């Protein structure tokens, strides 16, 4: 009988439903796609190569060229100073003019009031300044700007008179400053683009394989064929093997469907004749009743096998959970030793199949009636409740029986498994809960069993919320 006057205990404790549904969630803590993992690893490799190249360039090219440039500048200063010392006044003027025109070297007197900025903007500048001071003397001044005029200025003296020598900065400038940043940014962008391209080329065949596998999982064998003419030999072999596997699975699925049709036809007909002959030929009423019960049990076992072997492919539709549970409870009939309490919000819709859902709840109710009777009263008390959370509908169906040994909980959904002695006493195939788990999985949901904290076994079902078209 159905009793909606009392609210099931788990509705007064909403946390219990959420906690009990936790086993339904089994997602990895961190999930990274193969593309991004490959891209990240390639990027690390490329960045490491760029850093190694920079260090190699610095050791083999950057520092030696800096020292060479400083030596050339020191030689230029010494040669200019020697030429000016050993020339007369007329030749000195001509020499200064020729150096400015031909060598881009300007020599000017150094005044006490000259304002200058030292040549120490970066490591290259400081290295050049240190080398010039070591070669020309500690009183040497190296500046990058004198009286607002930029350039490479070197202060030296001739017979005690101070002078400035202005040289072309390109004599010592390597690729520095913003130029370095531009080149590094360009190299980094090109490297990352190359890494993304390589990762995509690696990931594309696996994406196609993953899609094809998902189609096979859903029972669509015709849309899962992969290209067997790709250039890469390893991918070609994988595609050929996968296509052959899909063809064999398709053939197995066809054979299974044909076998199920044969079982349904070839076994039910003789069973029906056997039952008719039993009722007509057996005189003993008690023996006739037992034989009819045995035939009914064989017929029920055949139904269980057919339910369990149904194809996995299913197109979920919007189904009223209220109507499905009401129909399943109504099918129990008005048994005096069965009490069902329901607490389901009105207009609760899920995505699934109405026939499959009815089969799910019928199996769960039959299981609770058989094994979940109260050991004190002998009545099968069953509580059914549901609630909507996010994009899921959580359903809980529990009995008030002795429960199950915790070590056996994970085995209850295995085909042909029956629990402890109290649960294996009744006749059956051990397929009921296995059928429930398979049906829920086909509808995109999850199923779990747990012992209730207040006694009895609780079945937790998680189904997608029904969406309007």
UniProtKB/TrEMBL annotation:
Pfam families: HAMP (PF00672), HATPase_c (PF02518), HisKA (PF00512), RisS_PPD (PF16524). Residues 262-467 form the Histidine kinase domain. GO terms for molecular function: ATP binding; phosphorelay sensor kinase activity. InterPro entries: 2C_sensor_his_kinase, HAMP_dom, HATPase_C_sf, HATPase_dom, His_kinase_dom, HisK_dim/P_dom, HisK_dim/P_sf, RisS_PPD. The chain crosses the membrane at residues 34-54, 180-202. It is an enzyme of class 2 (transferase). Its EC number is 2.7.13.3. The keyword Lipid metabolism does not apply. One of its GO terms (cellular component) is plasma membrane. Residues 200-254 form the HAMP domain. It is a multi-pass membrane protein. It catalyses: ATP + protein L-histidine = ADP + protein N-phospho-L-histidine. PANTHER family: SENSOR HISTIDINE KINASE ENVZ, SENSOR PROTEIN CREC. This is histidine kinase. It comes from Hydrogenophaga pseudoflava. The gene is envZ.
């Amino acid at each position: 009988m159905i009793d909606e006057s009392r609210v099931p205990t788990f509705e007064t404790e909403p946390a219990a439903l959420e906690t009990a549904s936790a086993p339904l969630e089994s997602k990895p803590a961190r999930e990274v796609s193969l593309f991004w993992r490959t891209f990240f690893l390639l990027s690390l490799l490329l960045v490491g190569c760029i850093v190694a190249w920079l260090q190699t360039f610095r050791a083999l090219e950057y520092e030696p060229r800096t020292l060479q440039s400083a030596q050339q500048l020191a030689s230029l200063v010494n040669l200019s100073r020697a030429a000016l010392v050993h020339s007369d006044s007329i030749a000195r003027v001509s020499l200064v003019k020729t150096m400015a025109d031909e060598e881009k070297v300007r020599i000017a007197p150094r005044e006490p009031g000259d304002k200058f900025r030292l040549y120490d903007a970066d490591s290259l500048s400081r290295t050049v300044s240190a080398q010039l001071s070591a070669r020309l003397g500690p009183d040497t001044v190296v500046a990058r700007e004198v009286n607002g005029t930029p350039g490479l200025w070197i202060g030296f003296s001739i017979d005690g008179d101070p002078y400035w020598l202005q040289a072309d900065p390109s004599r010592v400038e390597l690729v520095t400053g913003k130029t370095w940043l531009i080149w590094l940014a360009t190299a980094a962008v090109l490297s990352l683009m190359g890494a993304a391209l390589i990762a995509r080329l690696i990931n594309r065949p696996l994406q196609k394989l993953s899609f094809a596998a998902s189609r096979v999982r859903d029972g669509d064998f015709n849309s899962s064929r992969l290209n067997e003419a790709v250039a890469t030999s390893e991918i070609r072999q994988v595609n050929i093997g996968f296509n052959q596997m899909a063809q064999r699975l398709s053939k197995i699925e066809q054979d299974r469907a044909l076998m199920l049709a044969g079982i349904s036809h070839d076994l039910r007909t003789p069973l029906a004749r056997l039952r008719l002959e039993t009722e007509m030929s057996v005189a003993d009423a008690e023996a006739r009743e037992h034989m009819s019960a045995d035939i009914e049990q064989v017929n029920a076992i055949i139904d269980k096998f057919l339910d369990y072997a149904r194809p996995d492919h299913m197109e979920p539709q919007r189904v009223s959970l209220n109507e499905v549970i009401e129909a399943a409870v109504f099918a129990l009939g008005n048994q005096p030793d069965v009490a069902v309490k329901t607490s389901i919000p009105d207009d609760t819709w899920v995505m699934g199949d109405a026939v499959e859902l009815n089969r799910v709840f019928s199996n769960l109710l039959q299981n609770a009636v058989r094994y979940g009777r109260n050991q004190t009263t002998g009545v099968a008390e069953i509580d059914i409740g549901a609630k909507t959370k996010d994009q899921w509908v959580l359903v809980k169906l529990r009995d008030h029986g002795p429960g199950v040994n915790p070590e056996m909980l994970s085995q209850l959904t295995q085909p042909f498994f029956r629990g402890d002695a109290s649960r294996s006493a009744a006749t059956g195939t051990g397929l009921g809960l296995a059928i429930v788990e398979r049906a829920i999985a086909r509808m995109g949901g999850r199923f779990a069993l747990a012992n209730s904290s207040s006694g009895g076994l609780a079945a937790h079902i998680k189904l997608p919320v029904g969406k309007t078209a």
